[in-house]
């Protein structure tokens, strides 16, 4: 699910196959303009325009970009484009919108599609290709070669529809995290759990230790998110499905090779219920179980700071919300707040890891559009974006210079993504057809919490909503 916070990859490039590939570009100094911000100057500081000669002379051209990324993160996106603009002569016109998913199809239908769009769900990408087969442009040669060189095969597969690569990876995130207060754990004598069984035992211990304080609970949670309310609950089910059924069955579930109401999915939802529907476990500082449905996900972890709950499961990008709560809060292993990996069962062969990301799609094959898409799939862009972003952004690009990541939780996220001990899977709801992944899955999980709708009825309803073709 695309996140909205309160504020949703070494050198080496291949040769551009079309559109001025052989043109060398010579720029004196390749520095930012006088009115650039300090952040932009940082992005430009170590840029060598020789790395951008492969894109050709794009002077006088313009590339339009449309995305769901807004506010501060949008500014950081634009800063990461500065080297490309400065060294090629192209202009990138960026527009972010909170109505992106609703408005992009409207723009396509009206003939005013952007040159480039950042699509946050592979399922949405497949829908766009199916609904507008003549509108999207397959990925050009250079961008495709960058994907092959700098991304794993699975990331290429996420952007592929019917054997054709339509989307190149952009950013990434890790969702299998549990946020906690290191000092609260230390004061209570608790240790970070290493297995799922340890985590449940810790939850029971907290219940016992706080028996005289009914407002304090092991867990706090919230699934409120405007029109997207319910998506944090889908993340819970996906993470647990990976742990109880395993990655192979998870893949079958996401692709509907097994029905949504398969007994293995029922088992996973029941396991989620042992936490989220357990009155003794939740919702510390916020209310009873039903309060999970009305608590905004952006604020759901805040009771940890007031020592009213001990744990909150949420993705790496949640770190920005701690800064919103209090800019002085330190997110670090020995700081005010930190996160541990949502543990796997003790008998798991590998440690499953849930995550997500965005994909770059194009609606025009002009040389400057192909060049910009290739840039966004390059280590140069990943490193420029890391330089421009203090926290809350990572990439699965294996050419990313991880020393540029400024946030400890981002550094930890990349460690997990690149550690062979962990087996990554993309957010399931983002992979499913839109009417399920961004529809019935969200709404039914909300009803599961808000109205105590039964496990069986929830899963049956989602299964019934799956499109027949």
From TrEMBL:
Gene3D superfamilies: Periplasmic binding protein-like II. Belongs to the bacterial solute-binding protein 1 family. PROSITE patterns: PROKAR_LIPOPROTEIN (PS51257). InterPro entries: Bact_solute-bd_prot1, SBP. Keywords: Signal, Transport. SUPFAM superfamilies: Periplasmic binding protein-like II. This is Carbohydrate ABC transporter substrate-binding protein, CUT1 family. It comes from Paraoerskovia marina. The keyword Transport applies. Residues 1-28 form the signal peptide. Pfam families: SBP_bac_8.
């Amino acid at each position: 699910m695309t996140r909205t916070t309160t504020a949703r990859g070494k050198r080496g490039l291949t040769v551009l196959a079309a559109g001025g590939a052989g043109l060398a570009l010579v720029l004196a100094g390749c520095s930012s303009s006088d009115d650039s911000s300090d952040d932009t100057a940082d992005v430009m500081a170590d840029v060598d325009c020789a790395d951008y000669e492969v894109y050709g002379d794009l002077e006088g051209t313009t590339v339009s970009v449309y995305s769901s990324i807004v506010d501060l993160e949008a500014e950081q996106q634009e800063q990461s484009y500065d080297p490309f603009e400065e060294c090629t002569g192209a202009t990138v016109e960026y527009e972010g919108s909170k109505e992106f998913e609703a408005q992009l199809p409207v723009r396509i239908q009206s003939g005013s599609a952007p040159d480039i769009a950042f699509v946050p769900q592979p399922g949405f990408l497949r829908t766009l290709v199916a609904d507008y087969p003549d509108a999207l442009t397959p990925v050009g040669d250079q961008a495709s070669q960058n994907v092959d060189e700098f991304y794993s095969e699975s990331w290429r597969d996420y952007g592929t529809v019917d054997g054709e690569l339509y989307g190149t990876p952009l950013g990434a995130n890790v969702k299998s995290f549990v946020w906690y207060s290191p000092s609260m754990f230390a004061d209570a004598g608790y240790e970070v759990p290493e297995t799922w069984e340890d985590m449940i035992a810790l939850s029971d211990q907290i219940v016992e230790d706080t028996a005289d304080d009914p407002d304090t609970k092991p867990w706090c949670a919230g699934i409120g998110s405007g029109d997207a309310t319910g998506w944090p609950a889908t993340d819970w089910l996906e993470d647990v499905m990976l742990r109880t059924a395993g990655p192979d069955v998870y893949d079958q579930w996401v692709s509907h090779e097994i029905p949504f109401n398969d007994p293995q999915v029922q088992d996973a939802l029941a396991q989620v219920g042992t936490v989220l529907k357990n009155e003794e476990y939740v919702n510390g500082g916020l209310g009873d179980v039903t309060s999970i449905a009305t608590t905004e996900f952006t604020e759901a972890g805040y009771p940890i700071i007031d020592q009213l709950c001990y744990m909150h499961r949420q993705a790496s990008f949640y770190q920005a919300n701690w800064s919103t709560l209090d800019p002085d809060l330190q997110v670090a292993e020995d700081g005010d707040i930190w996160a541990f990996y949502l543990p796997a069962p003790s008998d798991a062969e590998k440690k499953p890891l849930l995550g997500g990301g965005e994909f770059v799609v194009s609606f025009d094959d002009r040389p400057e559009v192909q060049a910009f898409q290739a840039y966004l799939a390059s280590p140069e862009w990943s490193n420029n974006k890391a330089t421009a972003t203090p926290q809350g952004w990572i990439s699965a690009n294996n050419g990313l210079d991880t020393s540029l990541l400024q946030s400890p939780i981002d550094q930890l996220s990349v460690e997990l993504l690149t550690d062979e001990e962990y087996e990554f899977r993309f957010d399931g709801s983002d992979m499913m057809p839109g009417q399920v992944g961004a529809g019935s899955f969200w709404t039914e999980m909300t009803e599961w919490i808000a109205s105590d709708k039964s496990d069986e009825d929830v899963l049956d309803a989602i299964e019934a909503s799956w499109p027949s073709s």
